[in-house]
Structure formats: C-alpha cells, structure tokens
Amino acid sequence: MHILNTWVAPHLLISKGEVGDYALLPGDPRRVDIIAGFLNNVKLLSLNREYKVVKGTYKGVEIVACSTGIGGPSTAIAVEELARAGVRYFIRVGTTGALVKGIKRGEIIIPYAAIRMEGTSRRYIPSEYPAVAHPVVYNALVSAAKSLGFNFRTGLVLTDDKFYSSPDEILSWAEFGAISLDMESSIIFTIASMKSLYAGSILVVDGNRAEGTSKAYIGVKGRKEHDEEVLKAIRNEVKIALEAIVKYLTH
Asked: Which domains does the chain carry?
C-alpha cells in the first residue's frame, strides 16, 4: 500500500490521486495552454518530453489537460499513466485530415468509432476488438455541441501511424465510411474500453486529403501549423468538450 501511495508516473510525473476523473487529451503541448485558458485555478503539474500536464477547474469541476504527442505509443503511455493516477473519462481534442471531398477546414467531427490501422492498439488486443467511443461520452459531446449551437459531423475516423501516406493508401477507406484521418483516436478508444473506462474524441479538420489540401501534401504557411480559422475551431472544440463534461458526465 505504501508503494501505491507514493507511485509517480515515470513519464507524466504525476502521482496517484493528484488528478480527478476527467482529462482532455490534445496532441500538442501548446494546445494544453489553450485549454488552460478556459480553466480557473490552473496549476502546472509537469512538463516532460512531449507531455505537458495542467489541472484546473471549469464551472467547479476539476479537469486535467495532458498532451499526448503524435501517434500511438506516446498516446498509450499518457492514457495508461492518467488512468493509474485516477482519471476515468478521456476526451481527445485534436485535429484531423478529411478523407471526403466537401469537408472544409475548421469543421468539427465527433467520431463514434475508429478504424485501427495503427500498430499500438494491436499490441494490446487483436484487431478484431473494436475501437469505439463510449456511448456516454459520444452522446455528451454531441449534446454539448448542439446546445452550444455548433455545426459538426459524425462518422468513422481512420487512425493510422503513417502521416506521410499517399492518397492511394488511405482514400479507399472513404468508400467504407471513414470521413477523416488521425493518429490517436483508436488507441484511446481501445485502451479505455479494455479498462472499463470512458473515452471520446472531438476533432477539427485542418485539411482535406481528398482535395489535396492536407498539410502532409502542401505544408504550412508562415511557419505556423494552424491559421486563425483552425485555431478558432480548436477553441470551439475545447468549449464543447468542457461543456460535455460539466453538463452530461458529472454525477
């Protein structure tokens, strides 16, 4: 028991009981700062490797924000260590590349499931196991987006390890319902499901692979990953995630 009480996560550098039930998971550490701007009583818990961890309160509910870095292994570590520290609800707040023509930059997608085309979750359980958002979290995100008046899409997200993939490698998945591509959602969904935890994802479109406007193809301008249009949408998705927690996930 003494060991459990003094355990410190080796990467997030947080202790058991230091965080509450709810976590927002952006990929980018700088997006943690955006989330922190919505919170009161903000405290920086750690800054190590790709992980920046802060906690604060939103409308009286304690929230932790933790960056996951890019892709599967670092995301799995974040979920594992947050879960061991006490988190039960995980919401990815990220970006995604559209796979269907007509989906515009700045649009919001709330996926109900993910295609596991990454390797990390397969190290946990065979590929037959589904990667699905928990219905309670998915419905909370949808309800919050509607209550705030934001437009959004729902559908399948394709989670892949390879960012610089060619159109021939991935666009065929749109024929089977995938509307966008990311690198983390299926890992979060799978690990949370296996541990009887609660996970969801909300994503902002930052380019369209079907239209050739993905940053993987055209790069970025002005040495900035996102312009103000996408940053505004990121702030909107954070607002949706926070409202989902306080309105629909607290008991």
From this structure: 2-249 (3.40.50.1580)
